[in-house]
Amino acid sequence: MPNFDLFMPTRIVFGPGRLDALETTAHLPEAARAMIVVGAGGSMLRQGYLGRVQGLLAARGVRSLVYDRVGAMPATAQIDEAAGLAQTKAVDVILGLGGGSSIDAAKAIAFLARNPGRCEDYINDDGSGEKTSAQSSLPMVAIPTTAGIGAETNPICVITRSGHAGSFDWRHPSMFPRLALVDSDLTLTLPADRTALAGMVAFFHAVGALLSTARQPTADLLALEAVQIVAGYLPRAVADGGDREARCLLMWAGTAAGICASLASGLSLNTLALALSNRAPEWPYGAALTMLAPAYFDWLAQASPERFDLIAAAMGAAADAEHAAGAGSFHDALIDLIRAVGLGPRAASAGDPGDFQAAAIARTALRSVGRRIDTTPVPMHAADAETILTGALGD
Fold first, then answer.
1. What burial class does residue 185 get, using C-beta atoms within 10 Å of its C-beta: 0-12 exposed, 13-18 middle, 19+ buried?
2. Would the pTM count as exceeding 0.85?
């Protein structure tokens, strides 16, 4: 019998063109001054999205300042700096604009802006970030510009420890965004490789929710739809970035997979991919997930073959006579999808992982982000992690 909690406090304003609702929505937290958190690469400025957000806020009388030093993996030093600035400038609301890194950083900044100390003070001995606090976060608004990580709908942020190899999975109930403005038109400028990688992140998060020991009915429904959408529409969006139907559906797949992350957690695949990305920054999270996935799911299926048929059917593989049954059907469909979106065995990365030691990456993974290790249906030991990494890196 199912036994679960369901808590989803984020209001989602979804659809093409919905960014403009920022000017008129009654659900923007009351504020006189906002901090907009964006990545250090400058794409939000170049694409005009930052200017649009500032203009929409100004139209309703909200002044804004920008924090634009967030790296590809937001780090504790950046969070501490931005939170201090938010306190000094008496910011009332934090907006995360961009990909998952910007939104994750905004969640952590919003928390620290109302709580004493630094990021490091909230890390547990096991490397997780769940120490409680009497104070809730500043209200936070998420505006994603990629369709994949789904950070706009969960209370989780992944933060890199400055000066350390690993990252920690920080979550707090007050980190749920109050409002998520999910406008698929903001993804129209994404190049094909980033579109592919973002879509694969949504796919693997959804698959993780379906296989996790923490799975539950609502997450199952959302995850199956996300898997079906990614399998059917990601190749279309990669081939034609202007396909607005595909872009819109993929945006929903990413948002749905993000909800699943808060309802059903995930798998140790996510942990291994984060450890690899931390060690090799040229390997973004989506690339690491995609490269590790075939070896990882082969390992998982040997000991826990349940539900792979369900996922394969959602991908459209069950009716394909060329595919094997069960986990074999999922494996074949996964390889087909990876090839269809142009990632291939090296997941579109220019880096060469051959110099990175699998044993060291495995150790980093197993001592961080323990929650996803615990919700994997098969216990993962150091030897298992090293075997998966060695197989993927040496393939």
1. middle
2. yes
